Amino acid sequence: MRYAYLLVTASALAGCTSAIAGSDGDPQLEFTVREMTAGNYMPAPVVTATGGDGEIVVQAELSAPDPCQRVRAELDGEGKSLRLDVYIERVGEACVAVIGNFGYTGRVHGLPAGSYTLAVRHTYPGTGWPGGTVHTTTVNVD
Known about the structure:
This protein has 142 residues and is an all-beta fold. Helix content is 0%, strand content 62%. The two termini are 20 Å apart.
């Protein structure tokens, strides 16, 4: 079975949560942006993924070109292979010229028990920042 979802958070402000449901029996994605602050550049994102009772939880801390960003995520997968694409996009024309740091949590609910391959990819459209796969792992779901 192949499934694909699109999820958009309204902004990258702390506490913003969006959820999207798949069709019956498909996984559901909940995505929360935890913080967006000016700060020091993080050369590599810190990403973790853990399995639980019917779910995988992805947590990340990363930098963006500035704190004026909108974050959207897409979950794509087939069978026991999942990919979470996170897009960090500029909002508006004017923004303070400092690095923005933020974190997010992505919860994939409704997964049958088993071992899943998960890839997390970050993309910075229109910023000139390089993107790519930032985390690949195998996660066990109870």
